[in-house]
Amino acid sequence: MISEDKKIIPLLASANYGAGVDSDSFKAYGDKVTLILTFGSVTGDAVLKVYSGATAGAKTSSLPFKYAYGGGAIGAASADYLTAWSDATASSGLTLTAATYGSKMAVIEFNTAAMDIANAEEWVTVNISSAASSGILHMVAVLDKPRYTGNRSATLLA
Question: Which of 12, 71, 110, 122 is deepest in the core (most CB within 10 A)?
Answer without folding.
Answer: 110
